[in-house]
Amino acid sequence: MSRSNISMMDLPDEMILAIWNKLSKINVLYSFVGVHQRFDRLVLDKTYTQSIELINSNAKHKHSMIVSILDRFYSYILPQIHKFVESLTLESISMERVLSVGTYPHLRKLTIIKIDQEFALCHFTDESPFSEIFKKQITHLTVSIIDAEPTPSLIDLTTNIFARIFSLFKNLTVLDFGSTGRRRHYSRLKISDPSLMICFSPNIVHLRIGVDTFDECLYLLDGRLNYLQRFVVRISKIYASKLTIDNRVLTNLKSFSLTSYIETREYDSQVVILLRRMVFLEELTLRLNVCDRLTFIDATQLNNEILIHMPRLQTLTFNIITFIKTFNGTNRKTINNIQYTFYNGKNHQLVYYVDFYARGKAQSHIYSIPYVLNDLNNISSNFPGGLFSCVRDISLIDIEFPFEHDFFLKISRCFPLLTHLFVLNIVPQKHKRPSQLNTTDQISSIVEFPHLTSLRISQGCIDYMEQFLIDTNTHLPHLVELNIHYEHLLIVTENFTRDTTRRNCVN
What we know:
Blueprint: H1 13-20, H2 25-32, H3 37-43, H4 46-49, E1 51-54, H5 64-81, E2 87-91, H6 92-99, E3 109-115, H7 117-123, H8 131-136, E4 140-145, H9 152-168, E5 174-177, E6 206-213, H10 214-220, E7 230-237, E8 255-264, H11 267-275, E9 283-291, H12 299-305, E10 315-324, E11 335-343, E12 346-356, E13 362-368, E14 375-379, E15 393-398, H13 405-414, E16 420-425, H14 440-444, E17 447-448, E18 454-457, H15 463-469, E19 474-475, E20 481-483, H16 486-492
Parallel strand pairs: 1-2, 2-3, 3-4, 4-5, 5-6, 6-7, 7-8, 8-9, 9-10, 14-15, 15-16, 16-18, 17-19, 18-20
Antiparallel strand pairs: 10-13, 11-12, 12-13
InterPro entries: F-box_dom, LRR_dom_sf
Protein name: F-box domain-containing protein
Organism: Rotaria sordida
């Protein structure tokens, strides 16, 4: 038989399934349901029907799925597979139509993205046509609010939706609530009156959420969530608490993750005290910026103040920055070394380095390795390097020493999958590269960020805008978002006529 005459129908089941495994589940269902009885037998298997994700992940073609795929799912595919579906991921705008095509008797996991006020008022209520599914079936719920700046109205919306969820979803055990935004954009829960914040889902064992202050974190750990085992919280501001500190041991909590990017003075008085209540903890993750301590947070401090109180700890992941306004130590030489934390009966490596600045200021960085978090902040010119394959988002900040071209080469190699970059430096470069590259070495030393999609350069020295926009310095093949001062952009691009800046701005 000629190869040109072979069709899918001529292939054995095993080969068809091998081909389908290279496609997304949605494409397999869209392309093969209803085409032939044999394909239906293969495709109507739980491998393809158990978990359905109907969201558009390609921002450049935001309407393509709606036009070419979703209508077929609504009218033909979902009515056939709804009884097999256990997990649904969809946008709020399509939820009503998706849930209306069947009863979904086995649906347990629901993810809804881009929720707004109107959606919450309409659907997170007893009057919703889907209230029975929400009340009796859903055990795992993930929701995210439409991306927006964290204004007071957004905080109010977040709090309202949170209360409605706990009121309606009676059988929840896992709630992932609006905490997926990047560093500056995420929804926050604010509890003004804790007496009104009654949790109606006492079976919650896993909660991920963003909150406004440290008080909200304490409220959620005050006993109202009796069975909570895993708590992932992102806190906007850690201030001195208005609450009476509760020293009760959190007996059920096994995993805790705390992230806060804004500097706090309350590390010792708030954070450490809370962590000491978690004596049964097995996993701990910390991302903190601490200021106004007399000493740096290092391995000794972590061991003596926190880890010694967690005898069951198995996994520790952290990135902590300490900023001291007046450093009184006599040794101001560069500190850059490997230290060790001790838990689970073993020593564990970490990286510790210190930046010393004028007028007695200093900043320390300490983080666990291998580094598995997705961001790394306040990287200075003193950065020791390493491989950070999990990191997608970094900030480069230095107020006294320049970032030279070789530094950016180092950064590109340390963070091979970087997608978001922020740069702040007011100090001019001392060793600028020539505009014309004449040697092989110069050409091979062009900095390349192959996955970078978002670049933000704060107002400062124009050298860093030239560093990134001129293609003899840096290559940014996938850059789609550029945030820099417009006047500087005009200068660097020579009023958008400079040829060497076209390549990095083509997208």
